[in-house]
Design brief:
Chain A: InterPro entries: Peptide/Ni-bd, SBP_5, SBP_5_dom. The complex is a heterodimer of chains A (about 550) and B (about 300). With about 550 residues, chain A is α+β, with helices and mostly antiparallel strands. Helices cover about 30% and strands about 20% of the residues of chain A. In chain A, helix 14 crosses helix 15, helix 17 packs across helix 19 and helix 18 packs antiparallel against helix 19. Classes of the chains: A alpha+beta (about 550), B mainly alpha (about 300). Chains A and B meet through helix 1, helix 8, helix 16 and strand 16 of A and helix 1, helix 2, helix 3, helix 5 and helix 7 of B.
Chain lengths: ~550, ~300
Amino acid sequence: MRGGTHARWVVGAVAVALAATACGSESSGGSADAGAVLSASWGDPQNPLEPANTNEVQGGKVLDMIFRGLKRYDPETGAAENMLAESIETSDSQNFTIKIKDGWTFSNGEKVTARSFVDAWNYGASLKNNQRNAYFFGYIEGYDKVHPDSGEQTADKLSGLKVVDELTFTVKLTQKFSTFPDTLGYNAYAPLPRAFFEDHDAWVAKPVGNGPYLVDSYTKGSQISLRRWEEYPGDDKAQNGGVDLKVYTDNNTAYTDLLAGNLDLVDDVPAAQLKNVKKDLGDRYLNTPAGILQTLAFPYYDKAWNKPGMEKVRTGLSRAIDRKQITETIFHKTRTPATDWTSPVLGKDGGFRDGLCGDACEYDPEAAKKLIKEGGGLPGGRVTITFNADTGSHKDWVEAVCNSINNALDNERACTAGPVGTFADFRSRITQRKMSGPFRAGWQMDYPLIQNFLQPLYYTNASSNDGKWSNEKFDDLVDRANRESDPAKAVELFQQAEEVVRDNMAAIPLWYQNGSAGWSERLSGVKLNPFSVPVYHEIKVS
Amino acid sequence: MGRYVARRLLQMIPVFIGTTLLIFLMMYALPGDPVRALYGEQSVDPSQIAAIKAEYGLDKPLWQQYVNYLAGLPQGDFGTQIASRRPVAEVISEAFPVTVRLTIIAFVFTVLVGVSLGILSGMRAGKKTDTGVLVLTLALISVPSFVLGFLFQWLFAMQLGWTTPTVQDSMNFSQLFLPAVVLASLSLAYVARLTRTSIAENLRADYMRTAVAKGLPRRRIISMHLMRNSMIPVVTFLGIDIGNLMTGAIVTEGIFNVQGIGNLVYQALSRREGATVVGIVTVMVLIYLFVNLIVDLLYAVLDPRIRYA
């Protein structure tokens, strides 16, 4: 049987192939859902779930459930309120004494002490740990030693942090920064248990924190199950039995699952479904501005954009953009036209002032034409708006903005869209100062403070001042605001600084990005916090 | 035969090195810096970027990076993902079982249904059955897979309630059936067309007439003479198709929320995670090479005139 011999060889080769591609299969942990567990959509976080290494919403969702920091931002007002902090005191807006409440523990039983914070902050700041939020610790003294701009680090610990006793530590900053305590609600400042440092891999596989939830199981890439921590010492105990966060790669699919009753909460309703959302969900839908502002930045290293009179051209461009129409037609109202350079999540007391931009953000083609003419016209007679084409469908709105400008100026060729293939390339061109006209810029706040919307973006040589704008008056006002110990007065000074930004039109504000959520009939009490993360522990399941 | 297999296995080595080098160079040629892109809109100091690059050996010259990569492969070291700091081998081994399951179901479905339809219409060439199969296969070829995906989802899950609209458990064979059918539909149509043509042609061949004249029973004529000779083009197509089924499922995976290889490659590409892309492609190249070897060996089984020495 010749055929038989051949067949044997085929079988042999198949066996080799199978052995070579052999792969272990794991069974996913399918624990039985207790009555009051809800399921919610999730995206797989890129980075490990370390607090100082998470700066995106998906990882932030988990950290928000399993950690509590010194302060916590009120989901409604955005105000920072004491959580673990008993008191944060200062006499000079530069040296702070932080006292921690007694009685807090991590879910593994370890007590939360001053050292839990100091160790965590030192870890987050240290260059060798490659933590993405390291710059949060940049105001603390000694940061330049543990995280130098270039070269090796010369110290492992921030010299500005000192443990006084079990529940007290002091922080020394490099400059006066009166609103520093209000920044401490961000996840990067969360305390860490010893287990994090002693067995890091095990901790990352199953994080342990001090928040109202425990990590029950974590299957990377598909699901994380969080359950209520019954002994949680805080007074914001979870109102439900737990949350299963399921990974969805496409938010349309998550929405389909919500409608089919396989999912309770979707926190990013796809734009394509917005037409149906009223019909599908009725009032089980939320769409509110988040702490994200989209702007057009300018290259001030380019002389053409930095000469006197150009502020009129920039203001003219701003007035040539019909924000209302673009947010309605392109974004289906998932963006809100911007009227200042901060975000509504700050609230009135936090520094948001509706209409601070005033006329300069109002659509008026006649005024736009006049302003641009007065300012000496567009450099070279035309502008190109540069953006990255790979993420976030920016092409649509950039073209709409250009259309709006072209119509306002009665010039078909006044504005063109200039796509850059990838985000990585876009960023490297910005850092290499290769922009020759307005470019897409976006700012997602680190913490809900007006300072965070201004200083990192417009202060001379600030970390995210991509356009390299520089203005003495602005810098001076920010310095004064940081020195001011009365929060209300500090906010007022920041708003004056914001007016300087407006008068020079340092960047054109476009719109606030909204956060959205849709949920099933089982849920009630769904809210989004200032970071557009659902406040899971307040959700009730019936 | 044994020597032939050994020779083919040895030939795989240069092919393997060549393809991985190509992918490696392509990823390197893409503009932008993957480490910088990690930080998104946030600012980052150059020392941080330098530290990360040094940690992953990205600061070394390209040839050295490639040599290091090749040196790690035999030990199962596919490099490390920059963002998650997880070994690429671990990331692949999580998605792979899911993809393998999906591919097996899709492949079995393609073979069973596609070949049966092909035989059916080939035997009755020009009759009503043939026209019916023609219409069906043309429809499957012309409808894009995402249309079919949404249609099946709406029909079988939302209207009839036979299954959940998305895959709740990626390891569950029965839940993977719907996406597998969507995935298989295009290949199924091609397989049916190929089988039909081949069968219809061979029906008129001389050896068929001889077999009939010898008085062989009809079942033996069809299964041993007709089928064996008609399967060669189909087997060739199926060999190529396995690779497509494994990596080409990005759209289907998205619609049914299956966390498989297709999606992994897509995400890695958009994040410019070179190590992940090269790792997955390496595995795919290996599979592809082996499948092709098996296909070539199958030729000899199917057609006794083909010999390997």
